[in-house]
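Quick question: what would this complex look like in 3D?
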Amino acid sequence: MSLYQTVSVDLGDRSYPIIIGRGLLGGNFDLADYVRGTDCFVVSNETVAPLYLDKLRPNLAGRNVASFSLPDGESFKSVATMQTILDELLASGANRDTTVIALGGGVVGDIAGFAAACFMRGVAFIQVPTTLLAQVDSSVGGKTGVNHEKGKNLIGAFHQPRLVLIDTDTLDTLPVREFRAGLAEVIKYGAICDPAFFTWLESNMSGLLEKDPKLLAYAIQRSCELKAEVVAGDERETGRRAILNFGHTFGHAIERCLGYGEWLHGEAVAAGMIMAADLSGITAADLARLKGLVGAAGLPTEAPAIAGDRWLEAMGMDKKIRQKQLRFVLLRALGEAYLSADYDGARLEALIGAGA
Amino acid sequence: MSLYQTVSVDLGDRSYPIIIGRGLLGGNFDLADYVRGTDCFVVSNETVAPLYLDKLRPNLAGRNVASFSLPDGESFKSVATMQTILDELLASGANRDTTVIALGGGVVGDIAGFAAACFMRGVAFIQVPTTLLAQVDSSVGGKTGVNHEKGKNLIGAFHQPRLVLIDTDTLDTLPVREFRAGLAEVIKYGAICDPAFFTWLESNMSGLLEKDPKLLAYAIQRSCELKAEVVAGDERETGRRAILNFGHTFGHAIERCLGYGEWLHGEAVAAGMIMAADLSGITAADLARLKGLVGAAGLPTEAPAIAGDRWLEAMGMDKKIRQKQLRFVLLRALGEAYLSADYDGARLEALIGAGA
């Protein structure tokens, strides 16, 4: 029951393992080595906590476990919720040796991680992601934060976890729409840096959609390996790490224009990746393969109707702006991404339907 | 006019200089090398901005300078004010390449630094401290943060500045009570790690109180050197850096019990140092020298009347707690501090007037 794979994130004295396997909750993976003090504080949400909080407790035998559940949803990923978590931490008697554990999806992980980063200037943090998106993306790499009305993740910190514990059985309870949204980030890794993985995904997408355990474990493991590799080379995103944002400039704009939550993040990224690939000027064959794989995952291949000036305004707040010049993650070919401000302006205008 | 001393804070790729001198504001020190992008955002307060904001502008020639002034006072060092600063940063069009500049005392520096740490997961930050306390202590070392109703600095981050620019002429406008409060931290450095500096302070306290420029420059420089040395050895306070908190466990409790602002931080630390020295069991002669120097600086040598149980409650929230065991910074002798949970409980009870 407790066989698992380990992926290492190599960041010097901030290195940590990602443990991936089935049946890891319920005490099959002892968290003792990763909980420094006697106290843990689990942050979860009202959907996930009833399903998995009691399953997590046996992994924390001998520790004091306090917990707090947020309401479910991206709209609660705010400074206000963050302050509530800090209030609850203090009310529980938490101290510098308390370990904060995020049990849930990306929203829970991002906000719990940011709370851990800021509580007493930083306490230990463990990620237990329960959505595919969080397992392959947001739980790895140390980005934490909350949204601002002007944009997503505008307020946050880099704060690496001590451990990421991925029990793939948690995906059994994940709604299919969210599962598919997570596949968008899996596809992204193939598209930006691993053509062989992209090909593997083309061959195995139907099995993944059926949640075949072996295929799923491999897809998660490979995604984590690729993310770990990129993050290890550029922890604070001063350069290459930005390629992980492939599709995200357009994707974030879609989320902003529709209102957060209308499209899931992965859905917006899916359509955004195809726009970014199109802007890149890759071959029609490569573009067709990307569209094909995104479509096979049941994800949108086209952006919703948004006016050109709203696109530009929404993209104007994107964090990848430098000196007011838009920068995009583009593809030389499938599996080879780069960050550039040198793109075809006319093609961009055509893509977003803006006037010349 | 622009002669200055440089103290280096050696933190690998986060190293930075502290520039100390007279007449540095007004363009006599060009900030161009330390402002990465085209945009600066100056955070100040309603007392300091009218005095020094226009003086700072010539140091930033050729840059876009936006600014925001907080109300003056420790009570504004809150998550709510922090959020206002983040709102203002976004409203000004700030981006990842914006440099946040703190112009003011410790409150401004701590909150502006925390905003810089969290804005887009961290932007460049410069400290221009205008109080003695900020010049010798809070502007150096990267501690940033805000208060919580349960205690001071409970929410924050480590975020090193790229530069600390100390124009000692700003002390001309500093109220005498605040100037003396700053001297408490200067005395602290001598008491914890430099007996020769302590002796120098005993010989020169009257000249310092008259703000003799040469004495003042040396006292600030030596304080910064000592702090830089301790911080370089333990950036994130996992060990020795804690000695910088000498007198602060008692001091923070005094501030909490009286209500923040009733006693200035330095005043509370002054009385706290004498309590901590007493708890240490150093010789009566050493204790008398510390009391003498604190008194000569016009600082309180005794804590205000606080009931024993309020002391304990107030100290219970101190961040130096580990495993619920109180730890204090104690002295082996003047100039030699250490962190320990091994103190004389009866002596502590006697000091705070708690029942046995």
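Answer marked as accepted. The first strand of chain B starts at residue 4 and ends at 9.
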